[in-house]
# Entry
Amino acid sequence: MPRHPWASYARALTLSAALLLAPGCAATPTVLVPASSEADEILHLTWIITGIAAAVFFLVTGLLLYCAVRFRAGPDAPTPPQIASNHVLEFTWTIIPIVILAGVVVATIRVIRDVVQPNAAAASTLHVRVVGHQWWWEFQYLDQQVTTANEAHVPVGEMVEFQLDSDNVIHSFWVPQLFGKTDVIPGHDNRIYLHADTAGVYRGECAEFCGLQHANMRLLIVAEPPDQFAAWVRSQQGPAATVIGQDAQQGRDLFMASTCAGCHTIQGSPAQGQVGPDLTHLASRAEIAAGTLPNTSSDLADWLSNPQAVKPGSDMPNLNLDDASVAKLVAFLSQLE
Amino acid sequence: MSTSAAVPATAHHPAPFGWSVDRWGFNLFIVSEAIIFVNLVAGYVYLRWISPVTPAMVVPPRELIVPSVNTVILIGSGVVAHWAQGGLARGRRGRLEGGLIATIVLGVLFLLGQAYEYTHAPFTPQSGTYGAAFFTLTGLHGLHVVVGVCFLFVLLLRARAGAFSADHAFPVQAGTLYWHFVDAVWIVLFTTLYLL
Amino acid sequence: MAATAVGTARPHGAALPHTGLLAWLGTTDHKRIGILYICTTFTFFLFGGVEALLMRTQLALPRSTLLAPDTYNQIFTMHGTTMIFLFMMPMLVGLGNYLVPLMIGARDIAFPRLNALGYWVLLFGGIFLYSSFLFGAAPDAGWFAYAPLTTAPFSPTPNLDFWILGIELLGISSIAGSINFLTTIFCLRAPGMTIGRMPLFVWMTMVTAVLTLVAMPSLAVAAALLFLDRHLGTGFYLAPVGGDPLLWQHLFWSFGHPEVYILILPAFGIISEVVPVFSRKPLFGYYMVAFSGVAIGFLSFLVWAHHMFAVGLPVTAQAFFAASSMTIAVPTAIKIFNWIGTMWHGTIRLTAAMHFAIGFIGNFIIGGLSGVMVAVVPFDWQVTDSYFIVAHMHYVLFGGSMLAVFAGLYYWFPKMTGRRLSERLGIWHVVLTFFGFNLTFFPMHFLGLLGMPRRVYTYAPDQGWEYINFAETVGAFILGIGVLVFIVNVLRSLRHGEVAGPDPWDAWTLEWATTSPPPPWNFVTHPPVRSARPLWDLKHPEDPDWRRGRSGGGAAGLGQPAAAPQPARDTHRDESVPAQPAHPADVELPEQTYWPLLLAAGLAVAFVGALVHIVLLVLGLGLVVYALLGWLLSERPSPDAEPAR
# Structure
């Protein structure tokens, strides 16, 4: 575990850069680059229906434009024959759409059957309870006793069950590279089963308007090889790192003495608040404030100085901290690997 | 072009079923009211039997005597209203007026029964979704009964003034149709809220 | 009004002034009410357009700080609410108001005072909704207002109360209007105009009115329950007490899906009027076009849960709704083929109206196809609630309904005002609209596939969305310029437009058989109706539709005409329309009465009272009762009112 604050800064920066700056490696929530067999099958279906739609469009619009051009005439043109029906033609152009659409229905049902596995629950090796808050994501690894926020690690290739809960409004859990979305609805026991076939970092979004900061309720799913995943779990299970350095220790004292401890939990400390995200291993995450900012010291300092400027309306209050206090808190939080 | 084939704009193609403008308008109004109740009942049915939400609706024990008596009263009033309207078709003003009075009395009795129910219910609109649905559904129905009683009362006054005859019967028909509608809604509400 | 062939004798019944503000405030003339609807709704369209441009400006750049999130959320909510409830729905009602009685050969709509009430309620409802901006409390939870976000714990301020009460007011207007339309169409058609000979616009208005009558109550109920939850402590939508947030969605979409067909069917009707006239051929497959409208109306009640594919419904249910949603594409496709069949071997006149009609067909195809795509459930799981859906809905609502509205306005403006719109400015309008619209909305399909959710006030710069968003903003402003061109065209043409006679387009339905604009009583007499094209029959006695059997038969197929081609005709057919009798002595003007205005005002005061203070509520209800009594105790306005049977 790195002990020097600069090392953790560098790690966060590298991870963020890898995520955000490297071409082709940025975690974008795209439907077009699937990382699971289900998302791949849905994309395949997408190309088929897009192809059909494009073909129909060009054919019909082509006919339309042909008519507009070919039969265009001036005011002296003769009145055309007043033909207004042709039963064979009408029958044909009724049947053809029915046949095409029937095929699409069949394809739809087939893909539903393929991607919704009835034994997914039994096949899941990992169970994560997801709580949608306004406006961040809480992840509770039920069997591993791990609680984290906005960034969930999963082992590559294994089915993970996400149990979607909300005690406030409706959200929607959407990681396009892995699967379609499922809404998070108070009172409903919705579950989504995801597995990532390749290692990588996958962007997720909240996809149901949930209030002021719906736009800034993003998440990351990090899929890694099983041994790395196990190491991550172990590091997340432990209590918060022991803090070294005077700044960091003063930051810790400040944290515990302020309202911070009333909202946030840092395991192994007096801070056991349940309102905001668990910060025990904050420094291990690539982003803060549900994907609003990368997790670097300067961004963290901006957030702490004036959260309402970064994410207006969020529950994180502006504590009117001076720069020195912010620096100390950043020094402390950056050590929480 | 000759205008001798021209058609006066006051002439009209026969309306479906031969209904007049007023009858069509009123019947369509009843349809829209009926659909309001259909939606409310569907909402109750959904919360009660279809929704998978936890916790589910809790249905409190329901006392049936007063609402059953009330149901009989209201259905009876519908029969009386029909009888009254028959009096108008036969030119029997006494039957019309007497029938309207009896309908109004029965309607008021029904409302008193509802008032008793409301003040003695062991649940409130805030005590759970059953209570919320119960008071919303029966409350809206009760409002319709009040309107119906007023409607019949106005008809009674006009009937006493000799405004109606077998040829000019539509307002009475509208009033009794409205009353039957209110009756039918109650039967649905009684079944879903009390019996099922 | 322009001098007409009718003469200037004033029929009796003209006690009150016919012009001026008071006349308009007390009018029950369906044409004036129609114009009031059209002008008022177009104003709301401009408000909605400004809201759109504000949103697009905010989204042109990532992490823009132009609009704060709460401002943005109010703007996107009001944009949707305005465009749907204050613009498109009532605009189509306004066009129907103006045209339906004329098209069926009637003097007025069945319940003229109820008609006026519908307009004033719309106006006051819209003002009520927009007044929320003055308090910084405009509705801010989206135009479909999902619970529990809209319940008291999560929306404690009055924003949603403005929405609920505004919607309930507008619902009263809509239901009153649909009762009026249906009664008019059923009871006041000209002799000989069977249902199978009505103009398609009347058919579609009829189906739309049925949909409105049956679907609006779902919204009224949903919103009323929400009001109870917010203020009386009930818990219909609150999970902790046994309620279900999905109840809102089921109720809302039971309204919401028929609603989108309410928004498009009259547009189909407009296109079905415009395309035949500017192709010089009857509508191909009249019966199929009519029946497909009925089929769409019926099916529209069976598809609502396709808005809910991501909520966790049982998979079997989702499959059912996928199938039903795709079924509804069939009658829609039929219409498109019939319109193309109408143009086939026709004589096409590319007026601005026809350009918009053709543009409608092309753009609506895209919207319809993207609609079929999102009926494919697994695809929808990816793109629902993303910009793909924003693309789809705008293609059908703007590329569809709006273009049809423009087509209709260009087509019927001469009838309403006696002057033509400028074709030159019209072509500019067409080009700017077509280019601006597609630049704004086509790329949104891609944004959705790239993962951009809807209803976001900003976005991060690292997702690859910036350039597309910027281009879309440019497109939106081009579209806005097109609207400005249209406004300039209207204002100039009202004064300086080429004077139009009764029948400037050589058209065939009854509204063209009277002057432009029509006299208050529409017709004293009109041509006999023996087919769906009474004026064609009148102008072509040697080849009338009724002799050709059904509305134009070519049983032998295309290319084999039943009658020989006609000699060349002039486009100006005014002189063939029979002159109305010069002194319609037996005609009454539509009544002027202020009870509908007063009743609407009472309702508005009562609804404000529901928001603000019970004293106002009581006052408002008192005014309602007073106006109602005055209304019911005063005389019926129309001489056409039959003794009730």
Chain B touches chain C through 54 residues (CB under 8 Å). Chain B is about 70% helix and 0% strand. The beta strands of chain B are 7-8.
